[in-house]
Amino acid sequence: MHGRRKRYYHKTIVVRKIPGKCVVGALLFVVMSIKLISGTEIPRIAMNQGIFEVAMDYVFGRTEYSFEIPTAYDRTVYVMPMLYTAEAQKKAEAAKTKGVKKQTAKEEEEKTETKMKVKSTDMSAEGISFRNETGYTPDADACLRQKLSFSSNKKEPKVLIMHTHTSEAYADSEGARTKDSTKNVVRVGEVLAGQLEKNGVSVIHDTTQNDSPSYNGSYTKAMKNISARLEAHPSLEIVLDVHRDYAEQTKNGEMVQLKPVTEIDGEAVAQVMLVVGTDGLGLSHPHWQENLAFAVQLQQELQRIAPSLARPINLRRERFNQHLTKGSLIVEVGTAGNTLAECERAADYIGKALSALLSS
Predict the structure, then answer these.
(1) Domains of the chain, first to last
(2) For the whole model, what pTM was predicted?
């Protein structure tokens, strides 16, 4: 597929190339001008934040966003504005209310049958390896030699588990999203917290819905909550932002959802990915190398107890609020193709690996 690969947070999508930045800039200006002066009887522009941010990224080179684009349909409408006539606009409004015919059982069945196919795949890392999206060159050996700055105090809370995208869920839930904390990443965080507590590591699990009522600004809202927790509990040294990933590929013209999974002791377990942010976008993040050393040493423990569990460490240009501590990571547990049970098992292994690292 032609085009350049873009990352919206840690979700991979593809954006088609456009001839030139000047053309895009001019188009953006024209579209915004029409939006401002358009009336009800002339074509209207269905604008959204995604269009604006993607265009601004292309013109000015920004690559950190406040939203996620998980589907082929969304990718299309976020990159190009949709032009509506007044009549089409009325139909669109009616579709949001009672103007839409309720689907019959047969239509619902056909819709289910066209659901994206899921492909199980092995994404495990060979040793300590990286998916590097920065201009830096990580040194795994140096990270393994580096002494982590965590204290040995086990009485006070040491680990904060939270979720920037709290509604992220799995194949068990429609659209892989739900606010039901027993079925989304909050449940995965609960299992992780339980394993840490079982091994004597004091944990605070923040279940705030940072992506509700709006997905926009999730990281800004999460940063405020993390900062408040750190101020209330100065003993906190580690912040784990637990997510689920989204991965897909096109095969024979058909979109296939990827499900990273391995088998451990006869059970299917979702594979996990540690994501480390840097100062690659110019935001202040002076201690990101310490987060990287933490990720590398945690990866080593994961490979010791479950060799096929971890995917390569993803080193990113975005900061992801990881400047707040020297032990901050995003932990991607499975993808939208995995089941909740597979991800619960993965969380248990993450808890064992982190407990071992902190006691070493």
Answers:
(1) 4-95 (no CATH), 117-359 (3.40.630.40)
(2) 0.72
